[in-house]
Specification:
binds 2-acetamido-2-deoxy-beta-D-glucopyranose; mainly alpha; three-stranded antiparallel beta sheet; binds protoporphyrin IX containing FE; signal; Chloroperoxidase; single chain; oxidoreductase; peroxidase activity; two-stranded antiparallel sheet; 2 domains
Length: 379
């Protein structure tokens, strides 16, 4: 049902945008979110959000910058954010071009266009949805907060989208500045210049795993030296190391045998949110392969600058790290419980379902010994 509504919404969005009535789009999207399921207890949302999609049948390489997915620049009101992967998918219509989609749509899109491995896609997407999405409407913004995700859940839940700092989005990004400096989600040319410089120095003009390891380390040292509020632990610790290998795993054309990214392609994804011409996806389903290699180059424990001072880094022994990955699952559950201390009705049911759908991703990415937990009961 929700899939049909989203299709409808997308059609309407395209139609109304070309007629230039952007406010109607918002209104329509809102109504669709509210109408089908205003429930007896007064909560709004989608009944029975679908379970996450399984892996696709065909998992080889193929042309994904095809005629069915032309690039278009974002229109006024379209959401874009800190993730160059998801930004690109929105700008090519693999997810709704307005940058608002359900977790299922995001998983289908990252599998189809980037050949992201199924359980890994489930892990990342449900993580983002639990922390920054609207659990009642089953919609998530890849950028800032927008009415298109439907009425807000009760605070402290915020449904604020990818841009919210400190849940998923965090410090020491490669091409996005730390929130302390203001804009935490837009492409930052100064930072990209550093990626290019290190690609020249360590990769002969290409971004490969050697460059990824050097850049990860340098960005961390820069944040320690300049950001008095620098924080790098739990979710952020894991996602930052993953994201450092993503350009090698996902942005390199699937027909290439050498895993190295040229700078025109890097600029195309990071800055223009656009597939390079004639782009083929990875030749195999892929996730965060290469993470342990880049970590081993410059091991770094989770922590942050303390007492609001630069160059004052302290390790946080309470944080999850790669030797205790299930502590990350605990941390995520604690954040969810903080965001939703007392969910009721449809919100609670969707939350239970969402946590349950998340767990196969947790088991696959963090390890089978991260036993499923039921903070809100089982149904
Ligand atoms: C599967 C669902 C995905 C979600 C929910 C997601 C979400 C995010 C978020 C919230 C960030 C910002 C974190 C931060 O740096 O502070 C991010 C960064 C990033 N994402 Fe994604 N992402 C997804 C898939 C992908 C895919 C498929 C790719 C590559 C094709 C990708 C590439 C990246 C890269 C390279 C960064 C780091 C950007 C930088 O540091 O400059 N992501 N992602
Ligand atoms: C870009 O990043 C640098 C380094 O973090 C920061 O000093 C600068 O303010 C950022 N520029 C913009 C326009 O946000
Ligand atoms: C992150 O960026 C968004 C959009 O510019 C801004 O609203 C938000 O306050 C920023 N977060 C922090 C903690 O600076
Ligand atoms: C990255 O490229 C450089 C320069 O060609 C090379 O020396 C290095 O071995 C490469 N790293 C990897 C992991 O392939």
């Amino acid at each position: 049902m929700s899939r049909l509504f989203v299709l409808l919404t997308t059609l309407l969005a395209i139609l109304s945008a070309s007629l230039a009535f952007p406010n109607d789009v918002d209104l329509l999207k809102r109504q669709e979110v509210e109408d089908p399921s205003s429930s007896a207890d007064g909560t709004f949302g989608v009944l029975n959000p679908p379970p996450p999609p399984g892996p696709p049948k065909f998992t080889g390489t193929k042309l994904v910058h095809d005629r069915a997915h032309p690039w278009r620049p974002p229109r006024d009101g379209d959401e874009r954010g800190p993730c160059p992967g998801m930004n690109t998918l929105a700008s090519h219509g693999y997810i709704s071009r307005d940058g608002v989609a359900s977790p299922s749509e995001m998983i289908t899109a990252v599998q189809e266009a980037f050949n992201m491995e199924n359980k890994f896609a489930i892990f990342v997407t449900y993580l983002a949805h639990l922390l920054n999405g609207n659990i009642a409407s089953d919609l998530l913004s890849i950028g800032g907060k927008t009415r298109k995700t439907g009425p807000d859940p009760p605070p402290p839940a915020h449904a604020g989208g990818f841009n919210v700092h400190g849940t998923f989005e965090g410090d020491a990004g490669m091409t996005r500045a730390d929130a302390f400096f203001g804009d935490n989600h837009s492409f930052n040319q100064t930072l990209f210049d550093k990626l290019v410089e290190l690609s020249n120095r360590y990769g002969d003009g290409f971004y490969n795993l050697t460059v990824a390891g050097e850049l990860r380390s340098q960005v961390l040292q820069d944040s320690i030296a300049t950001n008095p509020e620098f924080s790098f632990k739990n979710v952020r610790y894991f996602t930052a190391y993953s994201e450092s290998v993503f350009p090698v795993n996902f942005f390199v054309d699937g027909r290439r045998t050498e895993k190295k990214l040229d700078m025109d392609s890097a600029r195309s994804f990071f800055k223009d949110m656009k597939f390079p011409p004639d782009f083929y996806r990875s030749a195999v389903p892929i996730a965060d392969q290469g993470l342990s290699e880049i970590y081993a180059m410059h091991p770094f424990l989770p922590g942050g600058n303390v007492d609001g001072k630069v160059n004052n880094f302290a390790v946080d022994p309470a944080s999850a790290d790669f030797t205790k990955p299930c502590a990350l699952y605990e941390d995520i559950l604690n954040t969810v419980k903080r965001l939703y201390p007392n969910p009721a009705g449809l919100l609670r049911r969707n939350l239970i379902k969402c946590l349950h759908d998340f767990h196969p991703g947790v088991a696959a990415v963090l390890g089978r010994d991260c036993v499923e937990q039921f903070p809100y009961g089982k149904k």
